[in-house]
Amino acid sequence: MSASEKLKASAEQVMGKAVRKTAHALGNEKTALKGAALEARGKARRLKEKGKDAFKD
Question: pLDDT per residue over 22-51, tens digit each?
Answer without folding.
Answer: 999 999 999 999 999 999 999 999 988 888
